[in-house]
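Sequence only, no structure available. Ideas?
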Amino acid sequence: MTAKETKLTSLKKFSSISSLKEVSESEWDACAGDENPFLSYKFLSSLEDSGSVDPKTGWLPQHITCRDDKGELIGVVPLYLKGHSYGEYIFDWSWADAWERAGNKYFPKLLSAVPFTPVTCRKLLVKQGQDEASIQHDLIQALVSVTEKLDVSSLHVNFILPDEISLFETSDFLSRTGIQYHWVNKDYETFNDFLSKLTSRKRKNIKKERKMALESGVTITALNGDDIKEQHWHAFYNFYLDTTEKKWGGAYLNKSFFELIGERMADKILLIMADYNGQPVGGALNFIGENTLFGRNWGCTADFKFLHFEACYYQAIDFAISNKLKRVEAGAQGHHKLQRGYLPTLTHSTHLISNFSFRNAVEDFLKKEARQVIFEKQELAKMSPFKQ
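Reply:
I predicted one. Tokens follow.
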């Protein structure tokens, strides 16, 4: 696809590109920065190169790029034209159903997000040293322009940072909130230091779970960088397939994707592997950010009591404390995370609805939903395992 170009100012040129191959890794990463591994060229290109993100799977890249008058890339937005709502974790199926029952076409739609990854991160990516506010404003206008040119029903920007909310709202985007569970590092020196801040009952429960997970005869190993070998990826992919088939009936990510991230960004990966009698039986995949450990995928081919909690939550906390990371984000859903120190945290997304009447209906829905989310968060906070 030929890149579509538009000029919002006399000094900036905006294009929509259908592949990351149309820009260099150094150009993209100069805008994306180092804070979040999912925005990196290595991660996003692995999705494209593996075919996990592809028109055949309902994902057509339409990344927005901004260049100055010298041709230097100074801003980008990851963007996809989608034929469905799978792999997003911000659910709009009811919107699609309502709009199509009214005789209209909801798909395709535009989505700015990291595919298959419910992680909060900046979407308006500006190269350091540039006029961030001006370029962010123009990137939003470029998104609006692409939405109009493609004549799609809607544009969705998922899991944005709180400081991006007002930027989108000034351009008629509708805001939406949700809840995830995040663990926050309060300058803990050790895991026991963290436990000491919990109520006695919760502290004893976590100690019991960790003890029972290891008493089952399972050996836990934390792997990073060159320690992650081909056999580890082979085993983990089988774990991933087992989990996805049980939960969703199909895997979004293929084996090639895991092989590519292993080749390209192993230094940003923490792979927790569980062995029993010398054979791999489970694993948890995490990504290491500048200040955050992101828990992503988990799988296990045998039933070991509390192994899920140990591999996914407690090992992640151990790693964050040892490496002085500020937080652990353990992915979507899961009230069970709360009693293990992961507290309810608001997530944010923003939505541009093209049709005025449909926009009003969605806005009304979101206002009601927001009240429910705030109430739920307040109720969940009462169940905090921490001492009051």
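The chain has two domains: 4-178+345-381, 186-325.
Hope that gets you unstuck.
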